[in-house]
Write a structure and sequence with these properties.
By secondary structure, this protein is of the alpha/beta class. It contains twelve helices and seven strands. The strands form two sheets. Strands 4-5-6-3-7 form a five-stranded parallel beta sheet, with helices on both faces. It has a two-stranded antiparallel ribbon with strand order 1-2.
Length: about 325
């Protein structure tokens, strides 16, 4: 999805800050160089005068004398470069410095976003996702099936824990692959520590890398924020709207929060609103399916069951396995 206005403004403020910083640096360089080599100031003033005259000639359509002005400016520029080098400066010392030579720190090359803008966009989305650091370790490249048993089986399907994990992994991969062409939601359930959160992080990492807007919340933090937004006299900066409209919302550990009528109604509202807007959601929970509707409502469970791909993970707690294996 396109950046929200406040996201775009955040990136452009950084470009404006960078431009202002570079202008100050150029002014400091000019002050230093002009004192050491006074002729440099004279050259710059002459170049500025001739350039203004050339511009006026172009605007008025007068071609006569323009080639002479161009030649004069070129000679002055060569003299300036020579003076800078003789006095121990780089030849471009009095040019406006820039961090990105492609776009000159504007963020755009013509009407297209520069590669540096796209990098800034991804960096911002990572920061706002609440997942920036953890995704360096939790992504598809680090997903391992070694923690899933070939002997533990799902009684309902007859599949082993490893087969079940492979199915969930493939589904998550396909979810990412088809994200821009089809609308899907994932509901990950199973016991504590079987990889539900890790798998949602894998999806988040891939989508953030392709500049999609991903928001991650534990259930507790999500409902805490929604409560603050609902009951606060001073509304936050569109945070609630952003939850409804981001490309992917991840609600982790649903069922660990203190559930009440407000939480139940907000969960339904959030799920329903995102379905109506065709915005994807991943929910993970330790709750058993038979307990889910009791905790939230039949209406909420019906909405999820009919609009989400249900994936159950089974097996032994991976966190405990890592402790016994020395954290590997």
């Amino acid at each position: 999805m396109p950046l929200h206005n406040f996201q775009y403004d955040t990136i452009m403020r950084e470009y404006n800050r960078r431009q202002a910083q570079n202008r100050r640096l150029l002014e400091e360089r000019q002050e230093e160089a002009y004192v050491k080599v006074p002729r440099l100031r004279e050259i710059d003033e002459e170049v500025a005068t001739l350039s203004a005259r050339k511009a006026r000639g172009l605007l008025s359509g007068k071609e006569s004398g323009l080639s002479d002005l161009k030649a004069a400016i070129s000679l002055l520029s060569e003299e300036r470069e020579a003076l800078l080098i003789i006095n121990g400066y780089p030849k471009d010392y009095l040019e406006l410095p820039c961090t990105c030579p492609l776009c000159q720190d504007t963020g755009y090359i013509g009407s297209k976003k520069c590669t540096c803008f796209k990098k800034a966009e991804i960096e911002l989305l990572y920061t706002q996702s609440n997942l920036k650091e953890i995704l360096e370790k939790e992504n598809f490249d680090h997903f391992s099936f070694d923690y899933y048993s070939d002997t533990i089986k799902n009684e309902a399907t007859g599949q082993t824990a490893r087969d079940t994990a492979r199915r969930a992994y493939d589904t998550a991969r396909n979810f990412v692959r088809d994200f821009d062409s089809s609308f899907e939601n994932l509901f990950l359930y199973g016991d504590t520590g079987v990889g539900k959160t890790f798998l949602s992080h894998c999806v988040a990492h891939e989508l953030l890398e392709s500049a999609h807007c991903v928001l991650y919340f534990s259930a507790f933090d999500l409902f805490d924020m929604l409560a603050a937004s609902t009951f606060s006299k001073k509304k936050e900066n569109g945070g609630e709207e952003f939850i409804y409209d981001c490309d992917l919302l991840i609600i982790d550990d649903l069922g660990t929060e203190l559930t009440n009528s407000f939480v139940s109604s907000q969960l339904f509202l959030c799920i329903n609103e995102r379905i109506m807007r065709r915005k994807s959601t991943i929910i993970s929970t330790n709750l058993k399916l038979e307990n889910f509707s009791e905790t939230y409502s039949e209406r909420t469970f019906s909405r999820i069951a009919s609009n989400y791909h249900m994936l159950k993970l089974i097996g032994k707690d991976i966190r405990i396995q890592k402790i016994f294996s020395g954290g590997k």
